[in-house]
Amino acid sequence: MQQLEITTFTAAVCGLIYLVLSYRVSQVRMAERISVGDGGSADLVVRMRAHANFGEYVPIILILMALIEYETGYSVLLGIVSALVIVARLLHAVGMGRPSPNPFRIAGTAGTWITLLLLSAWGLILAVRSF
């Protein structure tokens, strides 16, 4: 079976980031005694969106990374993409709590979209070549 070291590393780091984002949501829920929804708390909405946004983008990125790594094996390029994913998601999370526009959120969003575009194109190229 093919080793998926880069994807495994990326998923593990992303799992830790997701855990921190989850904890940050729980902090506000406990402090403001909000069990369900946002209770009208602007701080909770921001933290919930940072958490949800991470959960919306990271799974497809990890799936694409795993499929590409399975097909091609270890590559420096995929390692660079891994670093980009991690940095972009950290920048986005930091930027979510700041007033817009801010360079952290913009860089995080751009990095995430660039990563998704690169991985999607790479996956399409691999798929078309196998026909």
Topology:
Layout: H1 5-32, H2 42-72, H3 76-96, H4 103-129
Helix pairs in contact: 1-2, 1-3, 2-3, 2-4, 3-4
Question: Can you describe this structure?
Answer:
The chain is an all-alpha fold. The chain has a single domain (5-129), classed as Membrane associated eicosanoid/glutathione metabolism-like domain (Four Helix Bundle (Hemerythrin (Met), subunit A)), CATH 1.20.120.550. It is 82% helix and 0% strand. The chain contains four helices and no strands. The chain has helices spanning 5-32, 42-72, 76-96, 103-129. It is elongated. The relative contact order is 0.14.
Amount of beta strand? under 5%
Q: How much helical structure, as a percent, in the residues?
A: over 70%
Give the CATH topology. Four Helix Bundle (Hemerythrin (Met), subunit A)
How far apart are the termini? 22 Å
Total strand segments = 0
CATH architecture: Up-down Bundle
Helix-strand pattern, N to C? Answer: HHHH
Radius of gyration: 17 Å
Relevant terms:
131 residues; mainly alpha; Four Helix Bundle (Hemerythrin (Met), subunit A); 82% helix
